[in-house]
Amino acid sequence: MSINRVFTALFFVMGTWPGIYAALLVPTGRSGNRVPAWPFLTGSVAFGAFALLPFLALWTPASQERKGPPSLEDLKSQGPAGWIPRLLETPFFAWYTLLSVVGCLVFAASAGGDGWFEFGALFTGSKFTHVMTLDFLTLTSLAPFWIENDSRVRGWSGRDRWLVPLCCLPLLGPALYLVLRPKAQ
Asked: Which among 10, 70, 81, 159 is least buried, having the fewest CB atoms inside 10 angstroms?
């Protein structure tokens, strides 16, 4: 018995969403009401959107947002835990995320018509597959808001030209945005 390729790709893709959301929320998504993102992001590794949605509902824009990417000094001043935001700002993390997403998409596309048909049967017959797919769709539908927020805070010059196409590409758009956005200086 083999595992459906589309299901496997979706399962692996769900592992990239916490990294994408961490890269969008940790450096620039600070909430105006000081609700920390890290507990919700940590929970999203196991529980996906179910863990992240409370933070997204509680989040308020910061009253005084700075323009531009976070400085390396700001990231270093966060103490021992500062290595996580610094990692999220690296080109390595952005490219690794993009290549992981592309790999999962190619793997799913290689399933062929029969594989997608089997996935449709799994979607209707397995609660786990159904919930995981809805989780994927929820995270996908919320990503454009956080991409827009991150690009605005960073003062990204390519925002006018690239933002709409990136937001229209499910999963690939957010991963590509991480590669294109201004990095910490």
From this structure: 81
Give 79's DSSP letter.
G
pTM equals: 0.88
Q: Which residues contact 128 (CB under 8 A, 6 or more apart)?
A: none
Going by the DSSP 8-state scheme, the letter that residue 78 receives in this structure is T
- pLDDT tens digits along 34-82: 888 888 988 999 999 999 999 989 888 876 666 666 666 665 555 556 7
The number of beta carbons lying within 10 Å of the beta carbon of residue 2 is 7
Of the candidates 147, 151, 154, 155, the residue with the CA atom closest to the CA atom of residue 21: 147
**Spatial distance between the Cα atoms of 25 and 142, rounded to a whole number of angstroms:** 12
Please report which confidence band the pLDDT of residue 84 belongs to, taking 50, 70 and 90 as the band edges: confident
Closest by Cα among 11, 29, 2 to 115: 2
The token duo for 62 is 């910061």
Distances (CA, A) of 86 to 19, 73, 135, 148, 150: 13, 10, 28, 21, 16
Distance CA 162, CA 32 (A): 27
